[in-house]
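Worked example 4.2. Below are the chains of a multi-component assembly; read each line carefully before continuing.
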Amino acid sequence: MAKKGDWVRIHSVVLKAEERTAKLPEDTQKCDLEQWTKGFLQEESAKVGDVVTVVTAVGRTEKGTLLEENPHYTHSYGEFVPEIIEIDRQLREIMNFGGEE
Amino acid sequence: MALAKDYQSVMGRSNDIQKEALGLDYAVFETSPISFDYEALMTSTGYTLEEIERIQGLYGVGNTPLLELRNMTKLARKYAKPGFGARIFAKDESCNASGSFKDRRAACAVAHAKKLGYKGVMAATSGNYGAAVASQAAMQGLNCIIVQECYDSKGVGQPEIVEKARKCEALGAEVVQLTVGPELFYSFLSILEDTGYFNASLYSPFGIAGVETLGYEIAMQCREKLGKDPDMVVCTTAGGGMVTGTGRGLQKAGCKAELVAASIDLTGLHMASDVQFNKKSCTTGHTGFGVPYATDPDHSDVPRSAARPLRYMDRYVTTTQGEVMYTTEMLANLEGIERGPAGNTALAAAFSLAQELPEDAILVVSETEYTGAGKHIQPQLAFARENGIEIKFGDPSEDKPGQNIVLPANPGLIKYKEADLNHFRQSLIKKSVKKAGVKPTDADLEFLAVETKTDVDFVKKTLEENGLL
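Applying the procedure described above to all two chains together yields the following C-alpha cells:
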C-alpha cells in the first residue's frame, strides 16, 4: 500500500489500438499506445492497480494506474557472453601483447 | 475554456504549438513550396561559432581530446597493402558533461530557451540527447522533460534505452516513456502545450549550430598536433545532425577532408514494428534512422530540419551490428578505452576505410560515447540471445538483422559496404517535388542541387526520368 507523497510509477493508455490512425505495421496496429511516468502519489493511500494522481519531477500532474511503489532500475551488464572473451583473446594474440616486439 | 486534448485536436494545433515552443516562425524562411532559405534559418540563431564556443565552454562541453588509436592503426595495417593504413584518431566526445557529442546540441538549445525566458525544456529522444538536455537544463537551472520510445507491447525495454532513462532521471529530468509508434509526437506536443516549455528539438538551428564546433575542433586539433588537415572524417549517422554540424564546422575551418557517413545496416527491420523493436541490438546509429532522415529530413519534430546530411556527406557506408560490437571490444582491449557501442559505428567503418588510405593519411572518427549498464556490448548481446537472435563468429557478410549477429571471425573480415549515395540523392529530390505537388522553378532546381551536393543537371535528369519535370 502506497501512501501520500510516496514515489510511484504509473501507467496509462494514450491511444487504444482501434484509435491509432497513424501509418503503422500490422503488428503495432494491434497494440495500444501505452505510457509510463513517475511521481509523488497525491491520494492518501492507494494500492497497485488503482487509478491515481501523481506530481512528477517537474511538478506536472498526471493520472494513471498505479504500477509500482518505490520503482527502481534492474538493467545491468547482462549475462556472461563467452564470445566477448574470445574476441579479447584473439585480438591480444594477433597483437602479440606481452610478447617479443 | 480548456482545449480539447484528443489526438486529432492536438495534432491539428501542431504548427501553433511548435511555433510557441521554439520561439521561431519557420514560415519566414519558406521561398517556394519546395525551397526554403537554409542559411537564413541557420544564421537566424544569431550565434556565431565563437559565441557557441563560449556557451559550450561555460557548461562543460567541447574541447574534447583527439586520441590517436595507435594499436588499432597497427592492426588495420596488417590487413592493408604495403604502405597503406591511415593513422586512426577518435574525438573522445564521451568527455562532454553528459558523455556524448549531444551536449554540443543541448548546450545551445538550453541557453537559447533560458534567454527567451522559458521555464523548462523538452525533447523527444530515446538516445544520448535526453541526458544531454537533462544535464544542460540542470546546469542552466531549467526544468526538463524527456519523452522516449522505450518498450514493446509486453513492457520489455531495450536495455540501452532504459539506461538512458535512468541517466535522465539522475540528472533531475522527468522521463515519459511510451511503447513503439510515431504517435509519440502526440504525447510530446500535448505535454509541450500544457507546460509551455521550449522544444529543445534535435533538429533546431540552435542544436545543429552547436555541432559545428566539433568539425572546427577536429580541423584545428589536427593542424596543431599533426601539422596538417585530416584526409577523412567519419561520422556515425542517424538523424543527420552529426554529419551536418561536423561538415559545417570543417567548412568554417576551411578543411576539405572527405566526409564519410556511417550507419549500421538494419535493412529489413521496420522501425515502427512492435515485434521487431527488441530484435534490434543497437538502438541508434543505424540505417532505420540514417536513410529516412537523409532522404526526407523534414519529417522530424520541427517544420524544417536544420540537419540536412546530404548537403555535406561525400560517401555513405554501412557496417553490421557484429562488426560494431567487435570494434567496441577492440577499442577497449587494444586502446584501453571502454566506450558505448553505438558511437563506435563510425569506428568500425574507419578500421576498414583506413586500409584504403596511405600510411601518412589522417582519418578522424568524430565521436565516442559513454558506456554503462545496458549500454554496453555484454547486455546487448545477452539481450539479443534472450530474444532468439543467433550470435556466432563468421563472415559479417552473412549478417541478417533481426535474425543473427555475426561477429567477425578475424579483424580482417571487418569490411564496410558502400551505399549508393546517388540513389539517396535521387530519393530526396523526388520526395521534395512530390510532397510539394508543384512543378519546380529554376530556383528550386538550384536548391535541390545544394540539398544533395550535386548540380542542376543531376537534379533535372532525376526529375525527367521520373516524369516530374
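Take a moment to check your reading of the output against the notes. The CA atoms of residues 62 and 353 of chain B lie 26 Å apart. Residues 205-226 of chain B form the longest helix (22 residues).
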